[in-house]
Amino acid sequence: VQVMESGGELVQEGGSLRLSCTASGLTHANAMGWFRQTPEKGREPIACIDWYGLSTFYADSVRGRFTISRDHGKNTMYLQMDSLKPEDTAMYYCAADLSVLTKFVCVAKDGWGQGTQVTVSS
C-alpha cells in the first residue's frame, strides 16, 4: 500500500484547509485515518473512518471543527479542517489501514504516508 498526503500549508487562525490522502494498492476494505504529530504530544489520532463511511472517530480536540470523508472513485480520503487554531499546527499523516476503529478509539496498523505540514498562525 502506498499513500500520499497533500494540502498542508500556512494558514491564519480561523481559516480552513482540506487535506487529501490518495491510497493505492489497497487489498481489502480498509478503514483509514488521519493522525498528527508534534514534538510535545507525539503522533495521535485525529479522525478515522471505515470503508463505508458509517463509523467514524474524532479526537475531542477537533470534533465539530474537522470532518473526515472518503471518495472510493478517487481512492482518496479527505480531512476538512475549519476554525483552525494555532494548536492544530502539526505534521499530518494518513494511515491506510487501521487495527481498531470505534467511536472512541482509533489505532493505526500500517500504510503511513510521508506527511503534510499544517501551520496555523495567530
SSE layout and pairing:
Blueprint: E1 2-6, E2 10-12, E3 17-24, E4 32-38, E5 42-49, E6 56-58, E7 66-71, E8 76-81, E9 90-101, E10 106-112, E11 116-121
Strand content: over 45%
Number of strands: 11
Structural class: mainly beta
Q: Which spans have pLDDT < 50 for at least 5 consecutive residues?
A: none
Instruction: Output the helix-strand order.
Output: EEEEEEEEEEE
Work out the helix count: 0
Helix content: under 10%
Q: Separation of termini? A: 37 Å
The value of Rg in angstroms is 13 Å
Description:
With about 120 residues, the protein is an all-beta fold. Helices cover about 0% and strands about 60% of the residues. It contains no helices and eleven strands. Strands 2, 4, 5, 6, 9, 10 and 11 form a seven-stranded mixed sheet that branches. The chain starts with a strand and ends with a strand.
